[in-house]
Amino acid sequence: MREAVARWLFAVEETDSVGNIEVIDRAGSADGAESDIGDEILNIPNTITLIRISVVPLMLLMPLMLNPLGSQVMAWLFLIAVLTDVLDGYIARSYKMVTRLGKLLDPLADKLLVTTALIMMLAVGRLTEWQAGMVVIIVARELAVTGLRSIASAEGHVVAASGLGKLKTLAQNAAVVALLFHYPTFGLPAREIGLTLLALASALTLWSGWVYFSSYFGWRKRVANG
Q: Is residue 160 domain-shared with residue 88, that is, in the same domain?
């Protein structure tokens, strides 16, 4: 079991029956060269992702940061964390540092940030009871699609991120940033903008979720039909 987990995390797979192994680099190519396990885990992109995850506990301080200054601090903190997602993705792709661990941590960090921020805004009363429905839609969809991808992966099928899914993520992040500002910012009604974007994000969430599930079951049908 431990050997299987190690292979999955460090992108190592067997190449023959006598135990020789081949190392797959972060871009997915095989060069046969040995890699440093420490570097594999704590390379630059993965370190940036871990820093982004460290912002999640800070979101729990929201009840103490409800004044205009505290709201700005929370909003800018979330925005900077979101921008690091672009940075670590660029570094990983440009320098061939894409690992399976990174593929696990990167979407996990995004989901933790968004869901924690939304749940905390419910907790402090910045989202009303009926607006809680949108939060439930977003959280439920993320859990459902994550489970779907796990099932598909176990069956040898990759459910790749779609353009619609990326648009959904953009709408979610923009909505959360605006809602975290809460008070009028740069002369704009941040809360009203945030609620509008949250409604858009909820619609895109449902739409993209339907696309993922229809794609998976369409693949299952094609496989069943030969």
A: yes
The CATH number given to whatever domain includes residue 131 is 1.20.120.1760
Q: Which range of residues forms the domain containing residue 205? A: 42-224
Instruction: Give how far Cα 161 sits from Cα of 77, 83, 190, Å.
Output: 26, 19, 29
Mean pLDDT, residues 100-122 = 90
Beta-bridged to residue 173, according to DSSP, are none
Give pTM, 2 decimals: 0.78
Cβ(141)–Cβ(206) under 8 Å? Answer: yes
- C-alpha angle 92/111/95, rounded to 5°? 0
The answer to whether residues 144 and 32 belong to one domain is no
* Cα separations in angstroms, 106 against 28, 77, 109, 163: 17, 17, 5, 17
Count of domains forming the chain: 2
- Buried-exposed string 100-135: b where 16+ CB fall within 10 A, e elsewhere: bbbeebbbebbbbbbbbbbbbbbeeebbeeebeebb
Q: Are residues 150 and 87 in the same domain?
A: yes
Residue 86's CB: how many other CB atoms inside 10 A?
A: 9
Q: What is the mean pLDDT of residues 100-116?
A: 88
